[in-house]
Every structure is written in structure tokens, then in C-alpha cells.
């Protein structure tokens, strides 16, 4: 609707320019106007210029067509009548039966005006009056972005707005509506006595944003009324009160500030709400408490080399963000980070600090503060043999209120050289030496003991690949055996060194061929081993893309310091691999597996799949990990998530899905059902959900979400359960 007003104002300006051109003997070079007509008459005594018959006025990229155009110099009146059409360079087209303006465009009337916008939206009004040079008033106006029915052009569009009066105030830069009806299929469904919004010249203005409302969830029925307040060209505030039935008022908001080289965004909420602690089976009532959360996102571009950021996430308690799930921050852990980093040529340096808040339901060890963490990485130029030197250095300080504190300095120089031989063999040789120094305090928990420990861990490896390629008419086949021999000493992981970074470990196809399969530096992949496997692939029009890999490693000597951790194999590792099948656009299958080396029984599996055309498509994920195979979780896990979706026709689509825990004590985690409609001007979504999550503050719940999307107007959404 805003685009209409832009078109109308531009149209009036063009007509004025034409009238000024008629009053001059010579056209201005700054505002050239071309006038074409079957007949042009100039009456010097009356001071009028009249053009009749196929009048065409061209000014730049704009074109005005009419049956007649006249200009009266004495009354300062310009008018156009009969099939008036204005073509805008942006694509809009303005139609009118009659246009008359006077007093240097300050006053005038337009009759039977219609506008076709660039996106095929339409606007029409019986009449428009221009007054005092800054207000345009229109009566009985209709707007709709919907296409008309091809079979019946007289049928009403899917939805349209009808207003008894519309006023555009150019000084206030605001458009105001009186007696507005929203009609759908020709029937009124909503009414407002007054509605206003900024005109197209305004980028930001204070006012209410799209509200949302609904019922269901742990907070009960709610209504959300965000209000936007611009403070200046570079900052603004959104006040977002949420009124809930069960917990009263939740006051939330957001502050944004954009500077030339920096950006800051603050978000948060606060509420006085009921709080429970403990687990789902034995919650402890704490009564009403002040609860809330806080978020900060900021970044600063210092110069071409350096940039900095600060990101904070905190909640008053572990269940607040799940209970009030308006803020899309439902995670197990909140992480805060301060960072400064620089890039220059082949060098990288960074300083970090980390804070954590654990929101998981079971008891966990106290989360540490990690600060500072300093990293330096350098990659050298290629030498005369084609090899490169690399240097990695790290300083980490970690401390807790209760528990073990540690400081670590680590330096790791690496040299790597590769070669492709004439027979097609590809080899890569790598040599490295990781040197660490630790200072560990409160080792046994007594609070007064400390230890220092140093470690030197040299490692050498050579990798060989021999790709074999076979071509046929429509098929390319690749078989690539790969082997790696790694030499390193045993006994490089003393128990006095705490493992703060490598507790999450799972051997799979992504890290089998890595020199160090641990994520951090506290644990090293000690000992000598051989790694071997084979990659295969087929590519062609008939088979699509099919790739697979399977591999295994063998440790020459048992590492006693890692034997009890189950992190590394004692001799032969399990078989790991993947199969990726994409024969056509209707099938996409990825299967990743780990089989026991002794009896080939399944140790872990992950399947992702998507099968079928858009008319009926099945997709999902299956995940299985046997007991004790993951260092982060010793329990057996098995989950299935599956969705069935269908694009019924051009406008309608639907889906149904479930997420289940397949272990013995598991069950359903989430069920969902969704139907959607979307055309060029209107969208509708309905989603039904049943969540089975249970915690001290959280109970299993049902919820139905509704969303109505009106093009150019925004959306109205609600939920009911």
C-alpha cells in the first residue's frame, strides 16, 4: 500500500513539471519534457495551452498518456482528462479519469484513480483531494495484492482492504485510515476504526509491531504486544511485554546500536513467576521468584587485521528458557565468549575467554571459567621440495570455584610434504612435535595441592593413496585404497593432566585418518598404529552419485594410560565407514556405521534419508550408539525422527512427523502435524504439536499454532492447546 502513495506523489510531480514546461517558451535543459499530440492549441489572451488526441508526455523514464491535457497560466491550473495513464520507471502504472491541480500543486482533485504496482498489487479509489500542498485525502479506497480470477474478473480477490477515508500527511510522513475493513472472498472478517503507518519515505518510526497471541504451553494463554522506538539513525529499542494467564507479566525487550565499525544488540526478559527445582519426579516448590534471561551480541571491526566480539548468554535458572519458550534459546548449555582475533597473510592470532551455564536436568560438575585462551597459527611458504612448515601455539587458563584448576602452554611445530608419483601414487609425509607444560592446582580436591608436569609428544606419519579410475560410456568408477602409518611413543597421557577438552570422542569415518583424533590438546593420540581403508565411487547418469568408505586401524602396542578410558582401541579398532547414495533427485541416503572388529555386530549407526517426489516425500534420521562406545555418554542411545510431507498442489502442502526414543525406558519425544497454504498474497499455517518433555517446571503439553500471513500487511499468529 505504501508503494501506491509513492506512485501518486510522483505522478502529481510529473504533471506539475509538464505544466511548467507549457508556460515557458523554451524547455529547461535540467528537466526535458517531450510532448506529442494530434492537436496543440495556444491561446495567448486566455493564457492556455491545450493538447488533444493521443497526448503523450515523456519526461525521462516516465510517460503520461491522456486524451487531453491543458494548462491555464492565469489560474495556475493544470489538468489531464480521458484515459489518463502514467507509466513509472519502477514498473508502477497509475490510471485516472481526470486530474486537476492548482496553486502550484498545493490543491487539486483526482477522480477514479487506480494503481497497478510493480508486484501486481492493485489500489483504487473513487476520488482524491490534494490540500495545502502536504495532504492527500482519498475516499472509498480499496487495496489488494491478490490476483483476480482469470475466469471471472468481477469476482472479489482472496482478500482486500476497504477504507472509507485515507489521508497521507507529507509533513508527518504518515498514512492514516478511517473505517477500515478486511474482506476475504468478498466478506468482511475484521474492522478497525483507525489505522496508521509511516509513508514510504520513512525507514523507521515509533509504533506497535505485529502482535501475537495464543494459549497452550507452560505459561498458559498469552498476548504479546511489541512496541518499536527509534532513538536515532543508529539505535533503537523494542519494548516487548508478554502478558500470560498463568505467570502474569513477562517484560522483554531488545536494544540495537549500529556504529560505523561496531554493532551491539541487547536482549533480555524479566518476570516474577513460579519456580520449581529438582527433577521431574521430585520437584521442589520454591514459590514465586524473580526470573529472567540476558543476551548480548556485539562485534567491532578494529581495522583490516583485527576484530573483536563479546557474546553473553545467561538465565536466572536452568528451566526458565524452556518454560517461557518465546525467546528461541532452548539449549542445554548457554555459552558466553569474549574474543579478539587478527588475520594477516599466513598468520592468525586470537584471544578468548569463555563462561558456561549448564541447563541440563541432571547434576553436572561445576562449569569452569576459561580465560585467557591464546592461540597462534602460522603456515609458511612452500620450500624448494614443496613442503610447508606450520606452527601452532596455545596458552589456556582454566579455573573453577570448586575443583581442579589448570594452566597450559602448548607449542606444536609441524612439517608436511606431499608428492604425486608417475604411477599415480599420492603420498603425504608429516612430522610434528607437541610440547606441553601444565600447572595443575587442587588435583585431589583438598584445595592445597599442586603439580607441574611437562610433556613432549613427537609424531611422524606417512599416508599413501592410489586412486584407480575406470571410464565407460556413461559411468565413471573410482576405487581408492588408502593406508597410513603413524609412529609415536606410548605413555604420553599421564593421569595427573586433567582432560578438559577431549571428553567427547567417537571414532568414526570422519576422524579415522586423522593424526590426532582428539578434539583438544589435553589428550594426545599416543602410540604407533596403522590405518587402512578403501574408498569407492560410481558416477553416471543412470546411477547418479554413489560413494562408500570402510576402514580400520591397528595399534602396535597397548597404551596403559588410555586402556581404561575406552577412548582408543587396544589393538584392532572397530570397522567404521559410510555409504552415500544419491541416484536421482528422489533418493538421498547417508548411512554411517561402526561394527565390532570381533563379531561385526553393530556398535553405532546413523542414517539420514529423504525418499520420494515432492508430492509424497519421506525423510528422517535414525541414530544408535551402543553402551559405552561414546566417552561423553556411557548409556545406550537409540532415536528415530521421521517426517512424511506432501505438496498437494501449487498452494497446499502438509506434513506429519514424530520423534521417538527407542530405548527401553524411552518413548515418544514429540509428535507434529502441519498444513500450509501459500499463494501470491496470502499464507496460512496450522501446526499441532504434542511434546513429552518433563522437568521440574516443564510438563508434557499439547499445542496448536496458527499463522496468517497477509502480503505487505504482516502476519497474525496464535496458538491454542
Outline the structure in words.
It is built from 3 helices and 42 strands. It is elongated, with a radius of gyration of 36 Å. The strands form 2 sheets. It has a 30-stranded antiparallel sheet that branches. Mean pLDDT is 83; it is low at 1-31 and 717-721. The protein folds into 3 domains: 2-202, Sandwich (lipopolysaccharide transport protein A fold); 206-361, no CATH class; 388-584, no CATH class. It has 721 residues and is mainly beta.
Keyword list:
721 residues; lipopolysaccharide transport protein A fold; elongated; disordered N terminus; 30-stranded antiparallel sheet; 3 domains; disordered C terminus; mainly beta
At the first level of CATH, the class of the largest domain is Mainly Beta
Major sheet size, sense and barrel closure: 30 strands, antiparallel
Tell me the structural class: mainly beta
Number of domains: 3
Mean pLDDT equals 83
What is the tally of beta strands?
A: 42
Strand content: over 45%
Distance between the termini: 35 Å
CATH superfamily of the largest domain: Lipopolysaccharide (LPS) transport protein A like domain
Unreliable spans are: 1-31, 717-721
Quaternary state of this entry equals single chain
CATH topology of the largest domain: lipopolysaccharide transport protein A fold
- Helical content class: under 10%
CATH-level-2 architecture of the largest domain: Sandwich
Whole-number radius of gyration? 36 Å
Amino acid at each position: 500500500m505504501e508503494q501506491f502513495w509513492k506512485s501518486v506523489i510522483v505522478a502529481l510531480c510529473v504533471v506539475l513539471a509538464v505544466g511548467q514546461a507549457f508556460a515557458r517558451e523554451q524547455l529547461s535543459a535540467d528537466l526535458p519534457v517531450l510532448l506529442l499530440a494530434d492537436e496543440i492549441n495556444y491561446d495567448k489572451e486566455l493564457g492556455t495551452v491545450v493538447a488533444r488526441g493521443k497526448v503523450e508526455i515523456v519526461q525521462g523514464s516516465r510517460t503520461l498518456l491522456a486524451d487531453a491535457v491543458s494548462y491555464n497560466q492565469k489560474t495556475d491550473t493544470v489538468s489531464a482528462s480521458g484515459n489518463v495513464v502514467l507509466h513509472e520507471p519502477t514498473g508502477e502504472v497509475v490510471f485516472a479519469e481526470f486530474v486537476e491541480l492548482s496553486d502550484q500543486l498545493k490543491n487539486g482533485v483526482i477522480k477514479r484513480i487506480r494503481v497497478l504496482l510493480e508486484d501486481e498489487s492493485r489500489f483504487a479509489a473513487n476520488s482524491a483531494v490534494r490540500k495545502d500542498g502536504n495532504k492527500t485525502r482519498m475516499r472509498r479506497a480499496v487495496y489488494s495484492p491478490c490476483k483476480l480470477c482469470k475466469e471471472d474478473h468481477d469476482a472479489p480477490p482472496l482478500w482486500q482492504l476497504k477504507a472509507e477515508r485515507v489521508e497521507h500527511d507529507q509533513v508527518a510522513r504518515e498514512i492514516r485510515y478511517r473505517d477500515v475493513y478486511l474482506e476475504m472472498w468478498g466478506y468482511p472478517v475484521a474492522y478497525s476504526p483507525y489505522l496508521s503507518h509511516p509513508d514510504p519515505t520513512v525507514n523507521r518510526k515509533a509504533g506497535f509491531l505485529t502482535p501475537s497471541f495464543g494459549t497452550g504451553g507452560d505459561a498458559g494463554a498469552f498476548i504479546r504486544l511489541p512496541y518499536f522506538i527509534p532513538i536515532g539513525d543508529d539505535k533503537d529499542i523494542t519494548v516487548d511485554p508478554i502478558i500470560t494467564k498463568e505467570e502474569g507479566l513477562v517484560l522483554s525487550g531488545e536494544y540495537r546500536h549500529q556504529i560505523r565499525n561496531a554493532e551491539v544488540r541487547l536482549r533480555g526478559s524479566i518476570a516474577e513467576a513460579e519456580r520449581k527445582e529438582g527433577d521431574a519426579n521430585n520437584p521442589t516448590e520454591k514459590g514465586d521468584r524473580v526470573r529472567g534471561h540476558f543476551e548480548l551480541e556485539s562485534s567491532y571491526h578494529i581495522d583490516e587485521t583485527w576484530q573483536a566480539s563479546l557474546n553473553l548468554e545467561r538465565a536466572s535458572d536452568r528451566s526458565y528458557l524452556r518454560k517461557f519458550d518465546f525467546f528461541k534459546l532452548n539449549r542445554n548449555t548457554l555459552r558466553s565468549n569474549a574474543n579478539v582475533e587478527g588475520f594477516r597473510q599466513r598468520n592468525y592470532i586470537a584471544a578468548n575467554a569463555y563462561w558456561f551455564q549448564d541447563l541440563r536436568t541432571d547434576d553436572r560438575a561445576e562449569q569452569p571459567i576459561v580465560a585467557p585462551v591464546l592461540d597462534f597459527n602460522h603456515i609458511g611458504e612452500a620450500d624448494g621440495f614443496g613442503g610447508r612448515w606450520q606452527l601452532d601455539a596455545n596458552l589456556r587458563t582454566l579455573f573453577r570455584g570448586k575443583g581442579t584448576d589448570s594452566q597450559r602452554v602448548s607449542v606444536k611445530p609441524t612439517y608436511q610434504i606431499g608428492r604425486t608419483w608417475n604411477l599415480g601414487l599420492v603420498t603425504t609425509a608429516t612430522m610434528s612435535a607437541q610440547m606441553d607444560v601444565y600447572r595443575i592446582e587442587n588435583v585431589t580436591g583438598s584445595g592445597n595441592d599442586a603439580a607441574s608436569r611437562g610433556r613432549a609428544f613427537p609424531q611422524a606419519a606417512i599416508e599413501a593413496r592410489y586412486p584407480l579410475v575406470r571410464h565407460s560410456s556413461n559411468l565413471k568408477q573410482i576405487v581408492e585404497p588408502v593406508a597410513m602409518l603413524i609412529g609415536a611413543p606410548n605413555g604420553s597421557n599421564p593421569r595427573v593432566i586433567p582432560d578438559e577438552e577431549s571428553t567427547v570422542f567417537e571414532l568414526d569415518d570422519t576422524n579415522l585418518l586423522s593424526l590426532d583424533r582428539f578434539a583438544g590438546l589435553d589428550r594426545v593420540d599416543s602410540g604407533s598404529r596403522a590405518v587402512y581403508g578403501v574408498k569407492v565411487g560410481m558416477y553416471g547418469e543412470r546411477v547418479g552419485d554413489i560413494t562408500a568408505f570402510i576402514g580400520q586401524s591397528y595399534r602396535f602396542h597397548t597404551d596403559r594410560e588410555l586402556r581404561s578410558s575406552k577412548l582408543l582401541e587396544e589393538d584392532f579398532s572397530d570397522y567404521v565407514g559410510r555409504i552415500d547414495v544419491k541416484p536421482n533427485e528422489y533418493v538421498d541416503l547417508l548411512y554411517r556405521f561402526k561394527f565390532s572388529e570381533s563379531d561385526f555386530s553393530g556398535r553405532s549407526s546413523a542414517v539420514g534419508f529423504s525418499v520420494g517426489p515432492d508430492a509424497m516425500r519421506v525423510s528422517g534420521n535414525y541414530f544408535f550408539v551402543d553402551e559405552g562406545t561414546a566417552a561423553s555418554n556411557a548409556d545406550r542411545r537409540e532415536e528415530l525422527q521421521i517426517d512424511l510431507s506432501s505438496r498437494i498442489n501449487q498452494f497446499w502442502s502438509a506434513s506429519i512427523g514424530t520423534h521417538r526414543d527407542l530405548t527401553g525406558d524411552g518413548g515418544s519425544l514429540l509428535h507434529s502435524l502441519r498444513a500450509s497454504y501459500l499463494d501470491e498474497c496470502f499464507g496460512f499455517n496450522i501446526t499441532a504439536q504434542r511434546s513429552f518433555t518433563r522437568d521440574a517446571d516443564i510438563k508434557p503439553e499439547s499445542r496448536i499454532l496458527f499463522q496468517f500471513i497477509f502480503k505487505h500487511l504482516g502476519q497474525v499468529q496464535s496458538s491454542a492447546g
